[in-house]
């Protein structure tokens, strides 16, 4: 059967022999200089996550499948779910042992589009600067919100952390009640460019690709 988009992590990201990875939100701003020497920022589009992955040395029979993936993902309309392979959970709970079967969700959204409140957490659960969180919203297509925490907190007796500040800003469509993934969220990405590397008789190396988030 033909591939369906986005490719789940089990069909691409989880299979990659990763040597290096970058992941960051684009700045999406231009500036002009005023006559008084001031720098005036101008918003330009959405802040989309982007980055690159450098692939490690591997046997070519393993690499051959990766080359097929890269080729398919360079087709127009193709996409995949990206996850940050450096993160296995929140910083204070890397294995999500403390989180257990808890199902955190958005219980409030601030009007500044920078803060949200999470409920459904174990009492005393810690989220801190640098942690990732994400949730899905919308339909046709489903969109994937992906944020890094700037201001965290500790869950109250009722399992709530109020006013968690995140970056980038929360986009329209986020809804109270949405289930939230902590530490290991995914985003929908498309391939910007791919380098297939070089091979000797049995070993391949030097492959890499650049990716960027898409909201469509």
Instruction: Output the helix-strand order.
Output: EEEEEHEEEEEEEEEEEEE
Q: Low-confidence parts lasting 5 or more residues at pLDDT below 50?
A: none
The coarse overall form would be: globular
Mean pLDDT equals 92
Strand content: 35-45%
* Quaternary structure state of the chains depicted: single chain
SS elements, strand count: 18
Which structural category fits the helices and strands?
Answer: mainly beta
Number of helices: 1
Measure the end-to-end span: 23 Å
What summary fits the major beta sheet? 6 strands, antiparallel
Radius of gyration: 19 Å
The residue fraction in helices comes out at: under 10%
Strand order of the largest sheet: 7-8-13-11-10-14
Structure notes:
This protein has 216 residues and is mainly β. 6% of the residues lie in helices and 41% in strands. It has one helix at 60-73, and strands at 18-25, 29-33, 39-43, 49-55, 58-59, 80-82, 105-109, 115-119, 126-127, 132-137, 143-151, 153-154, 161-167, 181-182, 187-195, 198-199, 203-205, 208-213. The strands form five sheets. It has a six-stranded antiparallel beta sheet, with no helix packed on it. A five-stranded antiparallel beta sheet has the order 1-4-18-15-6. Strands 5-17-16 form a three-stranded antiparallel beta sheet. A hairpin with a 5-residue loop joins β10 (132-137) and β11. The mean pLDDT is 92.
């Amino acid at each position: 059967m033909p591939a369906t988009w986005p490719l789940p992590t089990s069909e691409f990201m989880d299979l990659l022999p990763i040597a290096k990875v970058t992941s960051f939100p684009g700045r999406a701003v231009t500036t002009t200089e005023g006559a008084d020497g001031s720098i005036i920022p101008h918003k330009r589009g959405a802040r989309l996550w982007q980055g690159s992955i450098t692939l490690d040395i591997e046997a070519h029979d393993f690499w051959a499948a990766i080359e097929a993936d890269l080729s398919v993902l360079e087709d127009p309309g193709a996409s995949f779910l990206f996850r940050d392979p450096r993160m296995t959970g929140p910083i204070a709970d890397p294995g999500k042992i403390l989180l257990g079967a808890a199902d955190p969700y958005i219980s409030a959204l601030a009007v500044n589009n920078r803060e949200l409140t999470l409920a459904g957490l174990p009492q005393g659960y810690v989220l801190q600067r640098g942690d990732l969180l994400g949730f899905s919203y919308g339909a046709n297509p489903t969109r994937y919100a992906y944020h890094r925490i700037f201001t965290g907190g500790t869950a109250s007796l009722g399992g709530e952390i109020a006013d968690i500040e995140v970056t980038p800003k929360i986009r329209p469509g986020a809804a109270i009640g949405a289930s939230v993934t902590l530490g290991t969220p995914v985003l929908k990405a498309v391939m910007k460019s791919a380098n297939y590397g070089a091979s000797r008789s049995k070993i391949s190396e030097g492959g890499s690709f650049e990716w960027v988030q898409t909201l469509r």
